[in-house]
Amino acid sequence: xxTYFKYIVILTLLFSSCSKNNANNEETAIQSDTELIKKVxxxxxxxxxxxxxINSKLARERLxxxxxxxxxxxxxxxxxxxxxxxxxxxxxxxxxxxxxxxxHLETALDFLKNADRFHGAWPHWMDGxxxxxxxxxxxxxxxxxxxxxxxxxxxxxxxxYFKNGNTxxxxxxxxxxxxxxxxxxxxYTNGENVLFWxxxxxxxxxxxxxxxxxxxxxxxxxxxxxxxxxxxxxxxYHNGWAKNGNILSGASKYNIPVIFNHNGANGNVGPxxxxxxxxxxxxxxxxxxxxxxxxxVVKNHTQIIYQxxxxxxxxxxxxxxxxxxxxxxxxxxxxxxxxxxxxxxNNDKGVITPTAALxxxxxxxxxxxxxxxxxxxxxxxxxxxxxxxxxxxSLHYQWKTPGYLAIDQGTIGPMMENYKTQLFWNxxxxxxxxxxxxxxxxxxxxxxxx
Length: 450
Description:
Blueprint: H1 2-49, E1 62-64, E2 74-76, H2 77-92, H3 98-114, E3 125-127, E4 133-134, E5 143-144, H4 145-162, H5 167-181, E6 195-196, E7 198-199, E8 210-211, H6 218-226, H7 234-241, E9 252-253, E10 256-257, E11 287-288, H8 294-311, E12 328-332, E13 338-342, H9 354-358, H10 365-378, H11 380-383, E14 384-385, E15 388-389, E16 392-394, E17 399-401, E18 403-405, H12 406-420, H13 423-429, H14 432-440, E19 444-445
Antiparallel strand pairs: 1-18, 2-3, 3-4, 5-7, 6-8, 9-10, 11-19, 12-13, 14-15, 16-17
Helix pairs in contact: 1-2, 1-10, 1-12, 2-4, 2-12, 3-5, 4-5, 4-6, 6-14
């Protein structure tokens, strides 16, 4: 009887303990969205802090976990802009103190001041030690106005974040302001009503890449129209970017309007980075012009990608409501070869790219949080590394890449911050020349009062 009694007591205690643990787990689950957002922001912050280029403090193009020295001196201009936002996020969330952050940014801005520029624009790639251009391709060894725009939106945020601070902070703000004002945006029209992506001192306009129709480049037109020193005309936006109204599409997918003709998508949508790069700072909430409501543009884009992954027309293993997201990243082909691809419904290779769903959290919070929980609670040992979620994986092919790209890691933290606090949306949209530039192009914003 004594043994039986002790057994009952033990069971009672165990049940009580389990009940308490369950209660604690339920309490943790309530807080887990916040905790996991904090965790992934801290993780991706490391890419731009722990693994920044040691000399320039700018963002390395890529990072391979099994070879940290791989391509260590190739600096990416656009990715460095995303990195600047991530550093501000780190300061704001106290991952680092403000003094550390300012020192880091001072070094980076001083480097940019002395780096190669081509009519004010930086190249796609630079050498992190010398600041000299590294050709992105044979003809692409000069200025890249799109990469420059990705950088300059962050310079605006740096200026706005520090402009009312102490003397050192105001000096940093001034450096950011001078750098962005030095870009000759109007040069990159080549005398036409459109922006050209590239110019080279050796090959001039031979790349001949006009920026028109919907893709990731909207921010280039916003920055170019907002410049107080080298602005483009509104005609360049309407005739170039909007193609005299032909940017509009009447197509729908899964009963969701596509709204814009996504370049090369044939009535479908492009990769999700098109809904991220320009909108790290440009707030799409309540933003309209003569062509669209931009909240609808980005939300519909994301929902179409989500529905594509749910419907899974190619029957790839692993696609479901908690594992989704197509965008440009490292990739794997059906023959086993690897490379880089712009994953989208019309180019779906069975590869999931974490930044796609994670960076879409302002548009699809429920769906993006499901993916975040999936990554960190079910597959953390498999798909999370030294700088956060790996760039890409495929359950269908049992493949992953233990590496990172700056342009993919760099959108996660800032978009999470916009979801939480709207930090970068508020900084950018309240900059006086940005507001005026948007107004000049025919934009209005109910969210920001113009």
